[in-house]
Amino acid sequence: YIYEKFGKYPMINELNVFGVRSELQKKFDKMFQSKVESYEKINNPKLAENLRHSSPKSIEYAKYLNFFNTKQFNRPLSCFFYSKSSRRKDVQTLPTGTCLPFSKKIFISVTGKIYPCERIGNEINFGSVNKKGVNINYSRITKIYNSLMDRYEPNCKICSRIKNCPVCIVSDIEGYKFCHDVLSQILRGISFVMIGIQRNTKKFF
User: Fold this and answer.
1) Average pLDDT value for residue range 126-136
2) Are 11 and 54 in contact (CB under 8 A)?
3) pLDDT grade, residue 93 (50/70/90)?
4) Which residue intervals define the domain 4Fe4S-binding SPASM in the entry (predicted)?
5) Which residues are CB-neighbours of 159 under 8 A, at least 6 positions away?
6) Which of 80, 86, 126, 155 has the highest count of CB atoms within 10 angstroms of its CB?
């Protein structure tokens, strides 16, 4: 209906997989729908072609090319959220794929709490909004992010995907669970990504 009426397909995404209570994990797994699997099940060639730019594969190809493109200008801002000990000359890349605070978006809860985005738990908040105004604790934000970055840095420096890491430390706050669980899968997938880019060069170059 939306495509016929407005000529656009609505954007969809998966449920957030982090912060699920252990006693409800099985119930969550039953209701969870994989975006990758959903796109793989499309058997309408025209629909698949119209959605190809928003497919998980195309997004992964684009992210890979973006992260390995040297013409990026986002390093100076990162210094505000990265400790002095971690800004040594031998550290060339900001660890993980974490968004810098306020660089992309924020999420405001019904109680007025400000969070990095809508896909994480409530462990980290940037401040609050109320009738009196907006209250943001900049020093607390900096301290939290620097602390998390320092925890990741030793592993990130020896990781082969440091320039193309999808891990968000705010989501992975419980102790590198996501990083450890998917790293082996990611490394196996690099060859898949390169093959996909080679087969679809006209889409990206």
Assistant:
1) 92
2) yes
3) low
4) 102-159
5) 165, 183
6) 126
Three-class SS state of 68: coil
Beta partners for residue 115, in sequence order: 107
Say what the pLDDT of residue 128 is.
94
Look at the block and give the residue holding tokens 């810098």: 100
| pLDDT top residue among 101 and 89 | 101
Q: How many angstroms separate the CA atoms of 22 and 14, rounded?
A: 19
The dihedral sign for the CA sequence 119, 124, 129, 135? negative
Least trusted range by pLDDT, from 11-20, 29-38, 44-53, 196-205: 196-205
**β-strand partners of 114:** 108, 127
Tell me the three state secondary structure of residue 117: coil
Strand (E) positions, the chain? 107-108, 113-115, 127-130, 133-136
What is the distance between the alpha carbons of residues 170 and 163, in angstroms, rounded to a whole number? 18
List Cα–Cα distances, 180 to 67, 139, 171, 173, 177, in angstroms. Answer: 21, 30, 13, 13, 5
Angle between helices 56-67 and 177-199 (to 10 degrees): 90
Contact 128, 199 (CB under 8 A): no
Q: What are the backbone dihedrals phi and psi of residue 50, each rounded to the nearest 5 degrees, phi first?
A: -65, -30
Neighbouring C-beta atoms of residue 141, cutoff 10 Å: 20
d(CA 177, CA 102): 25
